[in-house]
Amino acid sequence: MTTATNRLESTLAGIRMKTPVWTASGTFGFGEEFADFVDLAQLGAIVVKGTTLAPRRGNDGVRIAETPAGMLNSIGLENPGVDFFLADILPRITSYGMNLVVNISGSSAEEFGELAARLDVPGVAGIELNVSCPNVKDAGILFGTSATAVASVVRAAKDRTQKPVILKLSPNVTDIVPIAQAAENAGADALSLINTLTGMAIDIHTWRPVLGNITGGLSGPAVKPVALRLVWQTAKAVRIPVIGMGGIRTAEDAIEFFLAGASAVSVGTANFVDPTVTMKIIEGIDTYLEERGLRNIQELIGHLKT
Amino acid sequence: MTLPSYAVEAEILESKHVIPGVYQLTVAAKEIARTAQPGQFVQVLIERSFLLLRRPFGVADTDPNKGTLTMFYRLIGKGTRELSKLKAGETVNCLGPLGHGFDLDARQPLLIGGGMGLAPLILLARRFNGKAVVLMGGKNRPEVFWSELFRPLCTEVLVTTNDGSAGVKGFPTDLLPSLLEQGNHDRLFVCGPQIMMEKVSEIASRFSVPCQVSLERHMACGLGACLSCSIDTKSGKRKKVCKDGPVFWVEEVL
Ligand SMILES: Cc1cc2nc3c(=O)[nH]c(=O)nc-3n(C[C@H](O)[C@H](O)[C@H](O)COP(=O)(O)OP(=O)(O)OC[C@H]3O[C@@H](n4cnc5c(N)ncnc54)[C@H](O)[C@@H]3O)c2cc1C
Ligand SMILES: Cc1cc2nc3c(=O)[nH]c(=O)nc-3n(C[C@H](O)[C@H](O)[C@H](O)COP(=O)(O)O)c2cc1C
User: Fold this and answer.
1) Is the model's pTM score more than 0.80?
2) Which residues of B touch A54 (CB under 8 A)?
3) Superfamily of chain region B6-98
4) A45 has which bridge partners?
5) With contacts defined as CB-CB under 8 Å, which chain A residues touch B5?
6) B109-253 — its CATH code?
């Protein structure tokens, strides 16, 4: 398996990473599901599925649909709840030696604060605030599209935890920059983007929506150009690090995100296609740096020539 | 205990058009063939196609010595159409063996299958070393081509067809009560259409015969990560078809 050289080592919001390759929330379970395929300790961090205060059963009916070069999902934040995570899951997975970032979702700023407080425990490397899940009616999206709401959620979390707080941005907005800046000003330690783009698919034989939830979140290669553009716009506008994601499945894809200004990249849907993909991406980035005589990934980040 | 899964480039050894719309695919995948248990499945990636996601298919049979793995699939949509175009010598990427298979602890097993649900029962019958009876249903004579595959593996092969063109006219569930009345079976293993599994489950509970069913849900990863295939269970606990199943005890899920 991969042995990453120190060309790939860096620190992001205080999180020391062997490589700048993360896995995206909701696409990598708790990491352990991929232990047969991936040396989990080589990943920069794994981001755990969206966690809420109470358990959630998620949406009914068909929850995924394949679309051209992508997929729609409407899982609806199914998760066992934060208490179960802390008591049953966290102790089991710490032995893998990976940086664990917990993605959290709440229906009020207070809930985000409460979750951040409960997760301020050893074994958790950081908190990612999901204010942009398109699949949940009561939570998320409303926060993600308003700069003031995003700021209040970030402050609520920062007040209650010592851990680095990452704000995950929604692509479903007219202008991402003011929202990113509001998060930065409210004290976010990093930004991650993009979450999925809202979409839908229809079965023309039954005249019904393919997804039980009617609409869902689009991810995979289809969203990459949009994600790259948003990462570039955001990285230019803030001083905190940006974690870029959306459709990454090769080292070349990842390098585009670094050039656009991402300090780390996160791999989502591609894990479903090839469970070993993150290791291939790490190897590919390392080879790219070596071939170009670059000593560190920092020499790529934000070096887009315009 | 969970054995490891593998993602392997699997050369296609044979792709056979068995009856209209149904294909038999045999690939070289020695790691998977060595450890696959009846009821487990593989996620097949058709590389160099425009498709993104893998497609799940049951492990129908294996030859651990030759390192081969056989699946049967019906043409449904884009993925199975692409798969059917591939020829011997080309490759698919197989991820598996995945999931939780059948419990092999039975003295007089009765296997009940309808349509493509018969595929995983082949390996199950093989593991029972000739002591299983299989009860199968299909639309018509071509759709019960399976009977020839089960004959060398089972003590008895019982066939029903909807149109009566082979075996008894009707459904497997028409024959089931009289079979269970004789008290010859201590375990039922069922894979087929939802409605068939529900009816079998009803009859099984009437005769108090423990019964396992194999479920199907849309899934992306097959590894328990994406949560596409979550189901409710009787206990209220959510389970994943890909990881906790696809095989479940009937009272847990129906
Ligand atoms: C555990 C398991 C084992 C299976 N074993 C077999 C088998 O041995 N033989 C066989 O013929 N079929 C089997 N199926 C069903 C098979 O996976 C689908 O028929 C196949 O995925 C259809 O793909 P498509 O691209 O041709 O159809 P499309 O309709 O174009 O597929 C679109 C999407 O829906 C998914 N999908 C469509 N139908 C199903 C379904 N019934 N179950 C799960 N996903 C579906 C596809 O995977 C794809 O992501 C199994 C399904 C599961 C979950
Ligand atoms: C099945 C699935 C579940 C997801 N669940 C979450 C989630 O719980 N929280 C979250 O912030 N993002 C979630 N996402 C979004 C991903 O983390 C990621 O932002 C998005 O998929 C874009 O990356 P990709 O194209 O590489 O998949 C999910 C995505 C998928 C496909």
Assistant:
1) yes
2) none
3) Translation factors (2.40.30.10)
4) A22
5) 36-37
6) 3.40.50.80
